[in-house]
Each structure stands twice: as C-alpha cells, then as structure tokens.
Amino acid sequence: QVQLVESGGGLVQAGGSLRLSCAASGMTFSSYPMGWLRQAPGKERTFVTAISSYGGSTVYADSVKGRFTISRDNVKNMVYLQMNSLKPEDTAVYYCAAGRIGRLPTIRSEEYPNWGQGTQVTVSS
Prior knowledge:
This protein has no helices and eleven strands. The chain is an all-beta fold and 125 residues long. Helix content is 0%, strand content 48%.
C-alpha cells in the first residue's frame, strides 16, 4: 500500500522560501515518477511539478518555472520541493503524488493516482 507523508509547509511572506519533503513507503520507489500537486481554496487540484523515476527528467507548470525545484533521493525514498520567490497565489495545500509505474513524468494530474494527506502552504502579501 502506497503511503506518502508530506512535511515542511507553513506560513511565509511573499518572496520567501520553503522546502517541502515527502516520505514514501509501501512501493518500489525508484520505479515511480513522483510529483507535487496543489489545491487552492475553492479550486481544483492542479499539477505543479514532477520528476522521473531516476531523477533525470523534470516537468513544471508554467506558473512555477524558475521558482520551484523538484528533486528526489531514491536511497531515502524521499521527494523534495524547493519553493523560492513565493507569491500569495502559491497559497494552497500541497500534495505529494506517485505516478504510474514505468511512466515518464507528465503534467496531467490524473496520471498521479496516489496522494498524501497534504501540507498547507500560506504566502502572505
């Protein structure tokens, strides 16, 4: 059973930084693309970024390109999201997500069927 546990969220001022972490278990971690999705209040869950199973390929939503960086550690079964130059519109619950085994990372949210409980990120103006 896939388990994903996020941490690192919080309150930060605009222009600040946060680093989210995700601990994965119950899966052959290095076989899965991993991603981050987010859901703002009153909005649908949307794709943020993803990374291939061995970390050689990444994709980003246009809204976060140049500001966010995804990385993974296949020894520790961890995924990270470094968020810089945060904006109030980045406020959301951020979810770590596992993609489909053997697939390349994609911007399609429906390709990430397993999520964690989420961690709240609030950016004040």
